[in-house]
Amino acid sequence: MTKTTPLRSTKLIMLLADVPGFARAFRRHDDMTMARFVDRFYLLCADSVESHGGRIIKFIGDACHAVFPEDRGSAAVDCVLELQAQTRQLGEELEIDVDLGASIHSGTVIEGDYGGSAHGQYDVIGREMNQTALMGRGPGVRISEPVYRQLASGRRTPWHKRKPPTTYVYSGH
């Protein structure tokens, strides 16, 4: 069993995004409608993440996990704000009441191919990845202090500090 990418410690910007209201929407729409939504949502995520210099790690259900180089916090924020608008537009187009919820954090993780070469998958694991998941749930965009500090001072205005832990929540439209 060989690994194609050895496990190594690295600092990354981590993004977790999902679609609050997705399970509720399933009660009102058939499986094919929801499958079409997920298919298009995955395409939107991939296009936005890649165009902002990030990498998709995986999709699961209505969720997207992606990473960006450690100095690309501002690009990750741009990606999510774009994706939020696109997700709302897609929901309107398909008459599905959904929004985007996302958390962006910067920290050191262990990256690499987990599970061997035959069935393995590139992933990132670590306490900082867990912290990203614990930043909050529901609609809206949340960023950690290290990501907030990567934003130009003029871009910090629509972000409001929430404690504990220190998380900034986007209040712009």
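(ticket continues) Second input and output from the same batch:
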Amino acid sequence: MELKKIVTEKYKNIKELDSIISYMNSADRYSDAVHEQRKKRILQADQYRKENFAAVFPELNNFLKIYE
């Protein structure tokens, strides 16, 4: 929810994103199982691409905790 608040605040003045922000805030779809699946996919992609999610998206990694 904290990340959604930050995204909403940052992009609230961009009219073209209104429907996306509204959808994002329509429900809380977070669960531990979803987080673990997301983390697994990101780590697999990092390995394949020889990248590091935390290096590419440090602010987002602070919330998602892919790399701690």
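Agent notes: The radius of gyration is 14 Å. The chain has five helices and no strands. Closing as not reproducible unless the customer responds.
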